[in-house]
Write a structure and sequence with these properties.
The chain is an alpha/beta fold. The protein is 45% helix and 14% strand. Strands 3-2-1-4-5-8 form a six-stranded mixed β-sheet, with helices on one face. A two-stranded antiparallel ribbon has the order 6-7.
């Protein structure tokens, strides 16, 4: 403000004064944050302003989480209840917290929506984890996941620690508060502008697709987005019109003979995805996020791939962190899920812009 005023009013303010003010302002801000943080921690130690935590799990991982919460009251998190798997003896120190079985999680969330839910299940409980995630897929809650392999996730989840234990905030990024509003506003404005600018290209591509092979230029497929909601996703047709006649949904293959001549070119440049700007403008998708899959594949992957349902915590995207790293099409699904979870843990508008710029660069180079 001082710099702008000095320029606008032609004030003779020495540069040293501006530098001094900047240093003092930074120091004052740091001191204020320290004071506020110290005061908040003191209130928490007195039992005021605590966040109630509902923990799903009854093994060593859940016990470690509870122990850290109790050992660090200044964190402001109170273990208020524990939902067990019912498949093992409850770990020491957890018996007083048991509130029932993990299958009752939706009822507990409905009764106390202000609670934060911590998913702290062991590696061998991946099936239970999938069942729990499926039961809360459509609920609006604060869900935090404690990885079963901290040494693997600690290098990815920066700043998300609870007394040294890595915690991934699954539903507090691109879907909550002001940041979520900004993300949606950016999607709406950007997709509308891009639709207008790309309309001549879309018209030309539609004509080319129609001339290349019999069938419509566009086709819609049912896909799954945030919270398990289904929607019709639009694409330019890149396969024969009867590609799935008699076979049903088929997972992409590296050399699919059903793809048309123009379809191969469209896929290489990702131009077949352009009609999805309409889905983004309607709020069914985002410009950046995990790629949406068909319901038949989602149901299968939820049973086969650990942590797959966590991808449904945000809107599906036109492009994503996995796609710019080459994990698209006929590539290992596990690697895509790992990259999608990294995106969930690190989301920011800056990361979205980075992904979009890299996507445009790869498309221009013909390697998207």
């Amino acid at each position: 403000v001082m710099m702008v005023l000095s320029y606008a009013l032609r004030l003779d303010v020495p540069r040293s004064a501006l530098l001094l003010f900047a240093g003092l302002a930074a120091s004052a801000m740091a001191a204020l944050r320290l004071a506020v943080g110290t005061a908040r921690a003191a209130r928490h130690r007195q039992g005021e302003g605590l966040t109630r935590a509902l923990i799903v799990g009854d093994g060593p991982l859940a016990a470690a989480l509870v122990a850290r919460m109790r050992a660090e009251p200044g964190l402001g998190i109170e273990p208020a209840g524990l939902l067990t798997s019912g498949r093992r003896a409850i770990a020491a120190g957890l018996a007083d917290l048991v509130r029932g079985d993990a299958s009752a999680l939706p009822q507990h969330v409905a009764a106390s929506p202000e609670q934060v839910v911590y998913l702290a299940l062991e590696r061998e409980e991946s099936q239970l984890e999938r069942e729990v995630l499926a039961s809360i897929a459509t609920l609006d809650l604060r869900l935090r996941w404690v990885p079963d392999s901290p040494e693997r996730w600690a290098r990815d989840v920066r700043g998300e620690e609870l007394a040294g234990l890595p915690v991934v905030y699954l539903t507090e990024g691109p879907m909550r508060g002001m940041e979520g509003t900004l993300k949606r506003a950016f999607d709406m404005v950007a997709s509308t502008v891009l639709l207008v600018l790309a309309s001549p290209l879309l018209a030309v591509l539609a004509v080319i697709v129609r001339l290349d092979s019999p069938g419509p230029a566009l086709y819609a497929q049912e896909r799954v987005s945030r919270g398990g909601r289904r929607f019709r996703m639009w694409k330019f047709r890149t396969m024969r019109a009867d590609a799935e006649h008699g076979t049903g949904p088929v997972w992409p293959q590296a050399d699919d003979r059903r793809v048309t001549r123009i379809g191969k070119w469209l896929r290489r440049l990702s131009l077949d995805e352009l009609p999805q700007l309409w889905n983004v403008a309607r709020g069914e998708m985002s410009l950046v996020g995990p790629r949406p899959e068909r319901p038949a594949f989602v149901e299968r992957f939820e049973q086969q791939v650990p942590h797959y349902p966590l991808r449904l915590g945000v809107r599906a995207g036109l492009t994503g962190w996995a796609q710019i790293h080459g994990w698209r099409g006929a590539t290992p699904l596990e690697r895509r899920v790992e990259h999608d979870l990294y995106y969930l843990a690190h989301w920011s508008l800056a990361l979205d812009l980075r992904i979009l710029l890299v996507t445009v660069w790869r498309v221009m180079r013909g390697v998207a």
